[in-house]
Amino acid sequence: MNISKHEQRVLHELALGGAIHHERGEGGKIRAITCYTRDGYVLSDCTLDVFMRLRKRRFIRSQNGQPYRVSRQGIKAVRAQLNQR
């Protein structure tokens, strides 16, 4: 499956233990998101557009209003990358 560079980066960080925190606005729609890595840093590549594409493809999911995390499909879709620390 074709995944853009930004989607790949976000999925990789989520697979390592990150999470996407969301805010809902009027009508229950998501209006703002913030993607955190497992170390607590904010990932700037995660925009609302990238988030919607990942959610539409079911690569990320949320349970009981918790932050969004990578799903099993997302783990299968992400390519292995070296952790550049």
Automatic annotation (TrEMBL):
Q: Name one Pfam family in it.
A: YjhX_toxin
Q: Which domain of life does the UniProt lineage start with?
A: Bacteria
HAMAP family on file: UPF0386
**Family statement drawn from the similarity comment of this UniProt entry:** Belongs to the UPF0386 family.
Recorded protein name is UPF0386 protein BMI91_05010
